[in-house]
C-alpha cells in the first residue's frame, strides 16, 4: 500500500453561500491524499500501472471551476469523481481551505476535510 499526497494546490474560484462570494471569488488551497496498492507500478516502472497524479490534479482543477455554495459539496464531488476515474484507489482524503473567509473577523482560512473508502 502507498499514499500519494498532492498538497497546497492553489485555485481561484467562486464558491460560497453569499452572492458576493460567487461574484468576487476567493483563493482556495486543496490537499489530497490517495491510498492505493503501488506494488504493480513499483515493479513495472510503468505509468499505466500507477495512479496518475497529473490526472488527479486535472480532475480537481475541473471540479474547482464548478461553482458551489458549500465546501462539503465540492469535497463530495471531487471524491466521487476520483473513485469513478481510478479503480485502483482504495481511500481518498481531501482538504479544502478557503483563504481569508468573510466571517467578520481576522483568520487565515476555514477548511473542511472529508474521506471516502472503496466499497
Topology of this protein?
Elements: E1 2-13, H1 19-24, E2 26-36, H2 39-44, H3 53-64, H4 71-85, E3 89-99, E4 109-117
Helix pairs in contact: 3-4
Commentary on this structure:
The longest helix is centred in the middle third of the chain and has 15 residues, at 71-85. It contains four helices and four strands; from the N terminus they run βαβαααββ. α3 packs antiparallel against α4. It has a single domain (2-117), classed as GTP cyclohydrolase I, C-terminal domain/NADPH-dependent 7-cyano-7-deazaguanine reductase, N-terminal domain (GTP Cyclohydrolase I, domain 2, 2-Layer Sandwich), CATH 3.30.1130.10. By secondary structure, the chain is α+β, with helices and mostly antiparallel strands. It is elongated, with a radius of gyration of 16 Å.
Summarize the structure.
This protein has a single domain, classed as 2-Layer Sandwich (GTP Cyclohydrolase I, domain 2). The protein contains 4 helices and 4 strands; from the N terminus they run E-H-E-H-H-H-E-E.
Main features:
single chain; 119 residues; alpha+beta; GTP Cyclohydrolase I, domain 2; four-stranded antiparallel β-sheet; elongated
Amino acid at each position: 500500500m502507498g499514499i500519494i499526497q498532492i498538497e497546497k494546490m492553489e485555485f481561484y474560484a467562486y464558491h460560497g453561500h453569499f452572492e458576493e462570494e460567487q461574484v468576487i471569488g476567493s483563493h482556495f488551497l486543496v490537499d489530497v491524499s490517495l491510498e492505493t496498492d503501488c506494488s504493480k507500478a513499483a515493479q513495472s516502472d510503468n505509468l499505466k500501472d500507477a495512479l496518475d497524479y497529473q490526472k488527479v490534479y486535472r480532475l480537481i482543477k475541473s471540479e474547482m471551476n464548478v461553482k458551489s455554495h458549500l465546501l462539503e459539496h465540492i469535497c463530495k464531488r471531487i471524491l466521487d469523481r476520483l473513485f469513478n476515474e481510478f479503480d485502483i484507489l482504495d481511500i481518498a482524503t481531501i482538504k479544502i481551505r478557503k483563504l481569508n473567509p468573510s466571517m467578520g473577523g481576522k483568520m487565515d482560512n476555514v477548511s473542511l476535510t472529508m474521506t471516502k473508502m472503496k466499497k
